Amino acid sequence: MAGRELTGITVLDLDASVVFAASDKENAQPTYKGGVGFSHDLLEYIAADGRVQGRDWEFSVGWSCTDTEMDAIARLSTGAWTPGIDQNGDLIDDTFVAEVTGLLDLGGWHDRIPGLRVIARDEPLHPRYHKRATERERQLGRRYQLIAINAKVGQLAWPGARHRSHVHVENDVKQAKALGRNRWPSRQWSINVAWTQVVALAANLLACFRHLALPAGELRDAAPKLLRYRLLHLPARLTRGQRKRWLHLRADWPWIDDLINAWRAVKAIPAPT
C-alpha cells in the first residue's frame, strides 16, 4: 500500500456512516448534521489500542474542511508543504501535504484522543469537484482535503496515500444503504440490529454474484438499482414438462444475454467437496 509492504500489519478499512432515523427509535441521538441518527466512540476505542495489550493501533479518518481549517491552511508557510504520493508510492504532480495540527484548537479532541494530528492535502481543483467546492477553493483553483490521524512517526505523504485507498469502502456504504440499511423497520434496537445483519448478508451475496457471475465492466460496477432492473427483477415464468422444469424469459429483453451468461457462470462454479 502506497509503495510499502505491510509486513506484520493488519489493515481494517471501515466506514462509520450516520443512519438517519425517527427520534422515537431506541438509541437514536441527535447528530451534528441536525438530524437524529446513530454513531459510536470508534476513534476513542482505537486510540486506546482496542483495549488489547501488546498491539499498536493507528487510524485515519476524514476531517471537515471548514473556514477554520482554511484559515489555518492559509497561515502555513511554503516550506511546510511536502510532495504528495499515490497508492503506488509515486510522486503526484502539483499535489502537496502539510500538518495543520498546531494551527487548530484541538484541546477538546486531545483530551479524548491524545496524539491526534490533522493533515491537509492540497491538489488542483478537478472539474468533477467544482460544484461541491467552497467559494475559497474556487477562487484559489485548489481542492483541500483533511484527515485526522494518530500516527506518531513517518512521512506525512504516506498516511494520506493510505487513507485515499478508502474510497472503495465509501462506495460499499452507499450500496448498503441502497440495499436497505437506511430503512430500519422497528422502534426496537434489537430488531434493527438484526435488520442490519441481514443487509450485510445481502451485500456479501451481491458482492459474490458480481465477481463470480458478471464480467468486468458496467454491470459488475453497477448500483443495486440498475442490477435489479436489468437482471434481478426480470419477469419470468416457471413451467414443468418432459420431466423437467423450464424457465421462460422474455426474448425481447435488452439484457437477456447478460442474464443467461450470469446463470451459466454460476452453474459452472465447482461444487464444494
What's the overall geometry?
A: elongated
Helix/strand/pairing category: alpha+beta
Order of helices and strands: EEHEHEEHEHEHHHHEEH
- List low-confidence stretches: 36-40
Count of separate structural domains: 2
Largest sheet: spatial strand order:
3-7-6-5-4
The value of Rg in angstroms is 24 Å
- The total count of strands amounts to 9
Q: Give the helix tally.
A: 9
Average pLDDT metric: 84
Residue share in helix: 25-40%
Topology readout:
Blueprint lengths: L28 E2 L5 E2 L4 H6 L12 E4 L3 H8 L7 E4 L5 E9 L7 H6 L4 E8 L10 H6 L1 E8 L7 H8 L2 H15 L7 H25 L10 H9 L3 E6 L2 E6 L6 H12 L6
Helix pairs in contact: 6-7
Description:
The chain is α+β, with helices and mostly antiparallel strands and 273 residues long. The chain has 2 domains: 41-165, no CATH class; 172-267, no CATH class. The protein is 35% helix and 18% strand. It has helices at 42-47, 67-74, 107-112, 135-140, 157-164, 167-181, 189-213, 224-232, 256-267; strands at residues 29-30, 36-37, 60-63, 82-85, 91-99, 117-124, 142-149, 236-241, 244-249. The strands form 3 sheets. The chain has a 5-stranded antiparallel beta sheet. Strands 1-2 form a two-stranded antiparallel ribbon. α6 packs across α7 (189-213). The longest helix is centred in the C-terminal third of the chain and has 25 residues, at 189-213. The radius of gyration is 24 Å and the shape is elongated. The two termini are 35 Å apart. The model is unreliable at 36-40 (pLDDT under 50).
